[in-house]
User: Fold this.
Amino acid sequence: MRKRIEWIDIAKGIAILAVVIGHTLGPYNGQFFGSLIFAFHMPIFFMLSGYLYRSRPARQECQRGIINLLLPYLATAVVLLVVSAIARLLPNPLLNAYFPSWRQGLIATAYGAGSAVFNPWHWQVQPIGAVWFLLSMFIALQLFNGVMLLTARRHQRWRQAIVRGGVFAIFAILGGWLGHAAYLPWAVNAALLAQLFLYAGYLVKQTALLSRISSAWYLLFTFMWLVSAFQGYFALTVPTSPNLLISVMGALLAVCVSFASVTGLVIIRMRGRLSG
Assistant:
């Protein structure tokens, strides 16, 4: 059994809290505080996945994704469907039905949208909620692992990085463009854009970036995070924002700041243990 990395667990905990806060802001959504949270609270999960990435055969990665992502999604959807069915049988004040009918619930489950669906075909699909992330992460990891496998050992290291970066950039541009054209099933739009976050997390680990840059850089990163939040709301599920490039850059740098802050806390904690 592999030893757990303490700062990774803490970062995941902070990210989960940020997601809870971000989805309970109500009228603050779209304002600065909401934008500050949404600037990084979903990208951090993708970057953590990239940081922890290990190359696997495509079949093994798919099986792993089915167990860790698709089965929890299906279990959650079944609970929503059953609770909604019970709620429809009870007097209205007792329990609100999330899905107004079995048909709409099953369509929502199959589509896996996290927010309002739009497309040229004008399909009417109810969003299933925050669990959209599980489907999108599954697609993102399959794409990422596939590109990493296809580009392995075919180039010198620097050329390999350029090729991979170029492929992931193309995916991200496609995801951003689709954010204005159609919301695809399983949040494929977000999965495409998330390739940049996955690759960034992978590079942070490969280059040991967190231990190589000075505190002054983190001040600049924090400033860019604030700029991203001030310019508007970043909805990764679509994905859209007033300026998607600024939002993506702000998300990347905000996550780096979060990583550095957490690792700093862990180091201080370890020193305290040793001195004690």
Observations:
- The first helix runs from residue 6 to 22.
- The radius of gyration is 20 Å.
- Confidence is low (pLDDT under 50) at residues 267-274.
- The chain is about 70% helix and 0% strand.
